[in-house]
Design goal:
By secondary structure, the chain is mainly β. 10% of the residues lie in helices and 64% in strands.
Length: 181
């Protein structure tokens, strides 16, 4: 059984546990961050040739009383550029579904971790051509959630890794602002 099949099964279990348990907290939010490409084993791309990229997106999260939950999100990475490849510009965007676990440290601070799938599309543009590729990759992330007592807003500081997005990994650091229902 490959890793993606196992993850599909875990997502199914997490979603069924969330639908059968009482939802403690749900929120919708926006995210803004910075992405950095790790070309992996592709020796033709050098880390210092690639710029970082602005990333942005939206997410929705539901968390049960026992701390388990599911997060759905859409994230986009603006332009990555490599000057060694005739001015190749790359963009990526996709949809994420991740089971997560949140551990409360206090009434206002919680840690969370998540692992899921990222269905992505990457587009490449040079001075003369444009092409696209798409696929499904694994993603893992963690962060800190701040829940101010006097408002319905939440803040999250997050780090996430998207594995094998068209043969490269993308590491993302972000700040999220959500509305707690």
């Amino acid at each position: 059984m490959n890793m993606k099949n196992i993850l599909f099964f875990l997502i199914f279990l997490a979603m069924s546990s969330v639908t059968n348990a009482e939802i403690k907290r749900e929120y919708l939010g926006i995210t803004l961050g910075q992405g950095m490409v790790d070309p992996g084993d592709d020796s033709s791309i050098q880390n210092d040739d690639l710029e970082s990229s602005l990333s942005y997106g939206v997410f929705g999260t539901g968390i049960t009383e026992n701390g388990f939950g599911v997060e759905l999100g859409i994230v986009a990475f603006d332009e990555f550029q490599s000057e060694d490849f005739d001015n190749v510009y790359a963009r990526a965007y996709g949809f994420e579904v991740s089971p997560l676990y949140e551990m409360a440290l206090s009434e206002t601070v919680a840690l969370y971790g998540k692992a899921g799938l990222f269905a992505w599309t990457a587009s490449y543009t040079t001075d003369t051509t444009r092409w696209e590729d798409s696929g499904v990759s694994l993603t893992v992330g963690f962060g800190v959630t701040l829940l101010p007592k006097a408002s319905n807003l939440i803040w999250r500081f997050s780090a996430q890794y998207y594995n094998d997005v068209d043969d490269a990994g993308i590491t993302r650091a972000g700040v999220d602002l959500g509305f707690h229902f």
